């Protein structure tokens, strides 16, 4: 099916075949993302960046993707500088933006904000993260990173380490991995376990899930270690954050017993959970992961705003 004109609010909005199509298209976009080739399919297109929550990589990579494709951006980078401060509703703000742009990319601290935006807008809406909910385009670039490293997404063993309760990146990623037959190993402080209802839903969909609180045992025969930051901003009480802060740290000693081809991923920013010494090892994939955000988002934007293009399929 074509993605043209469609909203991407959760990773469930994309079928496995559609995910594979975006990844195949993204691989072809790499030289354009690097600037060695030029394409302008989004010329005359305007994409609104409605970022009501701080962002570095997500906002800048979306903006880079639009510019690399010849389009232009309207950007809200500070909610305090908008009419929301005067009491305007999010619904009205998005309704207004949809009359100025051809698509809207939204990040918001409240779960469900992207779904509300999709109802308010008559233009395509892409969720760039809504509270502890979903982050579907992060999942696409995560999958692209894994596929580049292993040549497949089928049958990988992926350890999800860290904040599995509030971490929207792992929520989206776990759903996608379930669709590719990956084994998912959950490793977290007890207070940050994946919510029971979400774990049950994944198992209902056929996901292979194992809980292993010991990081060393978890990574022993893993292909991917996906590390997340403990997100202070998601905790209702600071005391809850302090109780789990610093619960884990990935360093060279920890990785010594892992498979040589294990890759370490992180949606970034990191806050001490991956030691700088890991950066120089063959395991470190998080900076490549950050770069792949550009070709992946280029591919998605082109498919949503222009339409399908013949291409291969990721497996």
Structure description:
This protein is an alpha/beta fold. It folds into two domains: 11-135 and 292-305, Rossmann fold (3-Layer(aba) Sandwich), CATH 3.40.50.1370; 136-290, Aspartate/ornithine carbamoyltransferase (Rossmann fold, 3-Layer(aba) Sandwich), CATH 3.40.50. Helices cover 38% and strands 14% of the residues. It contains eleven helices and nine strands. It has a five-stranded parallel sheet. Strand 3 (103-108), helix 4 (113-120) and strand 4 form a beta-alpha-beta unit. Helix 5 crosses helix 11 (286-305). It starts with 15 loop residues before the first helix and ends in a 10-residue tail after the last helix.
Number of domains: 2
Give the C-alpha Rg: 19 Å
CATH superfamily of the largest domain: Aspartate/ornithine carbamoyltransferase
CA-based shape: globular
């Amino acid at each position: 099916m074509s993605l043209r004109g469609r909203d991407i609010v959760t990773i469930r909005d994309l079928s496995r075949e559609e995910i594979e199509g975006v990844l195949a298209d993204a691989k072809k976009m790499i030289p354009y993302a690097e600037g060695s080739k030029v394409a302008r399919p989004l010329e005359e297109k305007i994409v609104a960046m409605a970022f009501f929550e701080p962002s570095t990589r997500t906002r800048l990579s979306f903006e880079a993707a639009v510019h690399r494709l010849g389009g232009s951006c309207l950007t809200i980078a500070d909610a305090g500088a908008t009419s929301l401060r005067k009491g305007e509703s999010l619904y009205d703000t998005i309704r207004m933006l949809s009359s100025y742009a051809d698509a809207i990319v939204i990040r918001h601290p409240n779960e469900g904000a992207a779904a509300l935006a999709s109802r308010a807008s008559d233009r395509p809406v892409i969720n760039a993260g809504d509270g502890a909910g979903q982050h579907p385009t992060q999942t696409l670039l995560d999958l692209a990173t894994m596929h580049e490293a292993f040549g497949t997404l089928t049958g990988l063993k992926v350890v999800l380490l860290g904040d599995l309760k509030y971490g929207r990146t792992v929520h989206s990623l776990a759903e996608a991995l379930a669709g590719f037959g990956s084994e998912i190993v959950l490793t977290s402080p007890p207070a940050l376990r994946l919510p029971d209802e979400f774990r049950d839903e994944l198992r209902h969909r056929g996901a292979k899930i194992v809980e292993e609180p010991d990081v060393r045992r978890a990574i022993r025969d893993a292909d991917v270690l996906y590390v997340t930051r403990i997100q202070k901003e998601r905790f209702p009480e600071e005391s809850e954050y302090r109780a789990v802060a610093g619960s884990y740290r990935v360093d060279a000693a920890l990785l010594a017993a892992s498979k040589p081809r294990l890759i370490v991923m992180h949606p970034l920013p990191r806050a001490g959970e991956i030691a700088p010494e890991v950066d120089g090892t063959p395991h470190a994939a998080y900076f490549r992961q950050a770069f792949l955000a550009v070709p992946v988002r280029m591919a998605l934007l082109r498919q949503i705003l222009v339409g399908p293009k013949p291409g291969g399929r990721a497996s």
